[in-house]
């Protein structure tokens, strides 16, 4: 193998490609592991109760690891009447796009898995594929409640994906590019959160709904349709659905940082701090706010959820695009 890598540059590039992919996967899994722990700690603090504090020492550092081991050892059941091939495939269909969207996200000016000209379009297109996995899981279970939960999840994800896309059009108009690196560079002097505050608010609300997190977690809420589309899943197959949700949390926090918070660009005169540190700080603030949302807001009803997406966020996003286009045409 070493002789082959040395003799053919294409093999060397392929080895580097897979090496970076494996490293990124390990980083994402580490984030998911300790992101869940951090979320439970923050929620415990905000709600005036203890978070995980027994397993793995005083801080509960191995609590999530213990949870993963429990899921690995749990019995994997497949309902007798389920469509077995689709039942097995659905969690993979839900998780794979969540990892694929990370490919084009620039974490610094020097670290990005793949820099393509339409990186934002790629993210939007690939992230939409997760809906197929969710609906497939509900359908393959051969359970009417799982099917209704899958259809409800699909309706929610599609409904909120439209205002999410509309909200980022203002950013695209200002940057003049769909390339995520170009969008970050366009914010070198001023971040788009200050120029496009309405777009940011719409984007953030729609992103929370896309993540199926509180207050938009109806597709998987225990009080709604016996936990929805994954009611028949157990063990590690169920964990794949949860893993997809937390990987998307990683991805949407990174995308928010890139689109609205200037990416790796520093604040004012603090340019002596490395760009990777700035990106990590902004990313962490976004994740904290997402956790804060989960602790603070009550769950919406299904009708309220759909009305907010179609009757409030979508018109506001369209109006923002119109105003942005007029201002750019008249003054720039």
Automatic annotation (TrEMBL):
Keyword Cytoplasm: no
Listed GO MF terms: NADH dehydrogenase activity; oxidoreductase activity, acting on NAD(P)H, quinone or similar compound as acceptor; quinone binding
Location(s) in or outside the cell: Cell membrane; Membrane
Record's catalysed reaction(s): a quinone + NADH + 5 H(+)(in) = a quinol + NAD(+) + 4 H(+)(out)
InterPro entries xrefs: NADH_UbQ_OxRdtase_su1/FPO (IPR001694), NADH_UbQ_OxRdtase_su1_CS (IPR018086)
EC annotation from Swiss-Prot or TrEMBL: 7.1.1.-
Residues annotated as transmembrane: 14-37, 86-108, 120-140, 160-178, 190-209, 246-264, 276-296, 308-327
Record's bilayer topology term: Multi-pass membrane protein
UniProt entry keywords in alphabetical sequence: Cell membrane, Membrane, NAD, Quinone, Translocase, Transmembrane, Transmembrane helix, Ubiquinone
Main location: membrane
Family annotation (HAMAP family): NDH1_NuoH
Assembly with partners or alone: NDH-1 is composed of 14 different subunits. Subunits NuoA, H, J, K, L, M, N constitute the membrane sector of the complex.
Name of the protein in question: NADH-quinone oxidoreductase subunit H
Species assigned in the record: Parageobacillus thermantarcticus
Gene: nuoH
